[in-house]
Amino acid sequence: MSKKIFKEIPLGQSIPINNIHAVSVSMPKLQHVIDYEEQTPQIVEQIVTAYPRFILHPYLKQMALYIKEKYKVKDEYEVVVVSSPKAVQIIADKYFIHNSINVDENFGIILVLKNTCQLQKVLKFIQHVGCNLSSRFAQDYLYDLGLLKNKHEEVLYPDENKAQDVLLNNIAKAYKQKKENLCLSPSGMNSIYSALKGIKSIGAKNGRTILVQLGWLYLDTMNVVKNHHNESKIFYDIKKLSLLEEYLETHGLQVSAIVTELPTNPLLLSVDIIALSALCKKYNIPLIVDATFATPYNIDLKPYADIMIESLTKYACGNADVLMGVLILNENSTLSFCKEEFFKHCDKPYIKDIQRLAYQSSFYEKRMQKINANTLKLIKYLEKAPFVDELFHTLKEENYVKVMAHKEAVGGIISLTFNKSFQKVYDLLNFPKGPSLGTEFTLLMPYVYLAHYDFITCEKGRNFLKENNIPIDLIRIAVGVENIEDIIEEFERIKEL
User: Fold this and answer.
1) How many CB atoms sit inside 10 A of residue 16's CB?
2) pLDDT lower than 70: segments of the chain
3) Which end of the chain, N or C, is surrounded by fewer C-beta atoms within 10 Å?
4) Is the same domain home to 137 and 175?
5) Cα–Cα distance, 131 to 185 (Å, whole number)
């Protein structure tokens, strides 16, 4: 029976269970999600680990306390640890922070006054640009000091001297690129940030200062476009390329790059990548594509994109326990001759994260084959399910279908709304429920509640969502590799409502 396969994971439990490096956390009831977003104390205190760019890892909190004591930091300052001294300099320059601290550490430390707007801005910046310090680094740091008794047991690629080459080779082969054209970073967002920093620098030399966002993209990608670029132009409707074309007729020589996703998050919409690529070539505009949802095994972006970004945290890992990204300069693009201009902005991931991902990425292609097959079968089931109101998947998109690598290359995401109470449906299902995607286990996420709760809570925001056809009561399914009959049987329980 499905109840033996899928059991509710208690609130605050890490996903995966009992994994201190997990990047997801269980929120089994919709009220838990709402209370978390409202920062209700009794709920927040149960969320110990979660997506590391959004919630400070307990090991990082412990490190900050140790640093505060070690360097006798005054109580009015918050100790913020980041991935590198380079990240400290970027933050200090951006927010005019001059609270210098001389430390003998191989990571970044910045002091910010407590309970200030400046502190909130710094934490948001770290979230947006993904310069978080690794939980595995923190684990080793605390263990070596005797502040941790044990380390989390896990399988790593055994040779740390070869791990990075193994990981880069795995990803480069998937993208049909030379490994020299790839640069790892501590998160997918750090890869996006680095790509846009490089574009900004190159574009400024040529009078190209406008960054174009095409489509409703992932929350923090939109934030980086909005907050970290001097000029931007946004086209939320990914299907109306004619509007973009009209804009480029007058501003084409001022555009530094166009950034998009294929397909988009969370509605799985697809731009006509062939037409878009041709348009970019016409005006000599670099095209940046976040390929996380598609993966290199489902769509070959080599003929179209100048820069490809992937959050390796997702499908390349498959276990939701590594935070990492990759920036890929297409060897077909002239930008591949400007590697240093892009790669210098990427922070370096911690070696233990690289070892973990070198191991996990070895199963990337096989993982996607199983996820694709399950997703295809689940789509067919949900298309006929009486409880489904609206279904979003890649096969509905002609623009996606025409560039699919093969007939099963559907990807692993389905989004849907229901003709029953959203809260009752969400609360009923016993799949793991929390942020992230790309896991070998099926994972549900109430996407708009977790990504855009600020829009839900005001009329202006709700109208904005409506204008862009983003349903509030939407569940995003990241389909796993479990037996498809068990997955379907769990969804069958909705008929009981």
Assistant:
1) 18
2) 1-3, 49-54, 99-100
3) N
4) no
5) 9
d(CA 329, CA 306): 6
Omega before 266 within 30 of 0, i.e. cis = yes
Same domain, 89 and 180: no
465-493: per-residue pLDDT in tens?
999 999 999 999 999 999 999 999 999 99
Give the separation between CA 301 and CA 310, rounded to whole angstroms.
12
247 in the same domain as 177: yes
- The DSSP line for 385-452 is -TTEEEEE-GGG-HHHHTTBSSTT---SEEEEEESS-HHHHHHH--S-BSS----SS-EEE-HHHHH-
**In this predicted structure, what is the pLDDT of residue 107?**
92
154-171 pLDDT per residue, tens:
999 999 999 999 999 999
By residue range, what is the domain housing residue 456? 365-496
Same domain membership, residue 412 and residue 359: no
Radius of gyration of the chain (CA): 22
332, 189: one domain? yes
Left (φ > 0), alpha (ψ -120 to 50) or beta: where does 469 sit? left
Query: What is the domain count for the chain?
Result: 3
| Angle CA 315–334–258, to nearest 5 | 60
Last residue in a domain, options 81, 116, 144: 144
Residue type (1 letter), 27: M
**Comparing C-alpha atoms, which of 283, 284, 305 is closest to residue 294?**
305
**What pLDDT does residue 53 have?**
55
Of the CA atoms within 13 Å of residue 42, those in its CB half-sphere come to: 1
**b/e 438-451 (16+ beta carbons within 10 angstroms → b):** bbbbbbbbbbbbbb
| 199 lies in the same domain as 109 | no
Please provide residue 140's backbone torsions phi and psi, each rounded to the nearest 5 degrees: -65, -40
Q: What are the φ and ψ backbone dihedral angles of 389, each rounded to 5 degrees?
A: -90, -55
